[in-house]
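Data card: per-record layout.
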Amino acid sequence: MKIKNNKWKAIGFCLALIFFITLVGCSQNTDNSVEHEKPTGQGNKGDGKEDEGKSSAQDNATEEDEMDSEDSSVDAMKEAVQDKISSMTIEEKVGQMLMVGFEGTQVNDQTRNFIQENHIGGIILFERNITDSKQLLNLNRELKELNADSKDIPLFISVDEEGGVVSRMPPQIVNLPDSKEIGDHNNSELAYQVGEAIGERVNAFGFNVTMAPVMDVNSNPDNPIIGKRSFGDNKEIVSKMGVEEMKGIQSKDIIPVIKHFPGHGDTDVDSHLGLPIVHNSLESIRKMELVPFQKAIDHQADMTMVAHILLPEIDNEDPASLSKNVVTTMLREELGFNGVAITDDMTMGAILENYDIGDATVKAVQAGNDIVLVCHGDENKLKAVHSLTKAVESGAIKEERIDESVERILLLKEKYNLSSPSPSNIELDKINQSSEEIIRKLEENE
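The structure for this 446-residue chain is written out next.
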């Protein structure tokens, strides 16, 4: 009897052990299943959210794949640009850091030499260069053709096309309203439409850069240089309208240039004639002038123009365009701008009345600018090129510093695919229709 009892006890123990092992195994399978499902959503069974969770996970995975693809593309572009820079001479690098203007309505020998021998990276056209639509289209096409043998580095071909009082378009083109009128209506959609219209007309003639929008807050009613070019005296309206116009320009594959950093609105001297002095404190500038620029930078601004204004509370020796405190410390480090910084025209009175242009060019690059703008005078352009080249050769400016700027410049040219061919014809009616529609909307809302 005792043997039988022990036998049944052993059998019972084995059955219990088998049951326990089976139970543990099921529990582990359940845990593995839950752990596997976690990334697809947190919905409970029967709540109808399982598919939604899976879809969300798939969307997230797709977004991550796209981000990885973009990062990979950017890395590949940077690597290609760096390879190109390593094959460039100092003269070729320096040339990329100059944007110049010229006289006349046709390419002259001096301009041809600047492009082909000095490897100039950018050209700016003014009213003096433009007679009509056909001539402008042919001129820009010729400029690109002259640059054809430049190691596949396309030209910036730029223009001051703000609309209103600052427009360089041929007479056949209907002008756009002043920025002040757009700001008065405080309509974001309309500001974007203005940007589209600017981008469309600039693109149609073969330009790839427009020196707009103006992000200055016109806080001084006696300002002789900004005035109606600004969206107004309210920093929030200037920020909103300026960012929307910038986006509209970008939508047409045109590079916008936000200007005039760090803010030209509180001046009472025209910097074309002399050097304006603004005695505002750094804190005051942060609260007013810098606000629109910070907003634009936060929305992927590509290029910033630095003004010729003296801010004694920040730098009591050099104007903003030549000041490391402004360009590097404020624009780059404080506001986080990683794009291309360009000076205002170095042949303006604010510079020429106070500096040798060669010395000013070197100081501008040492301050952190990537491009020096020289709009007038062949001697001025030559002196800028030679002074900058000499500064690099002597070690006054390290070649690594030049490479930083050239990399920013080439990356921007790649981003906008500036090697694309010039348009072969112009749809004037379509361009004018855009302007007329904006003007009509403004009239309807008065």
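Known properties of this structure: The two ends are 111 Å apart (CA to CA). Residues 1-11, 13-49 have pLDDT under 50 and may be disordered.

See the next section for split statistics.
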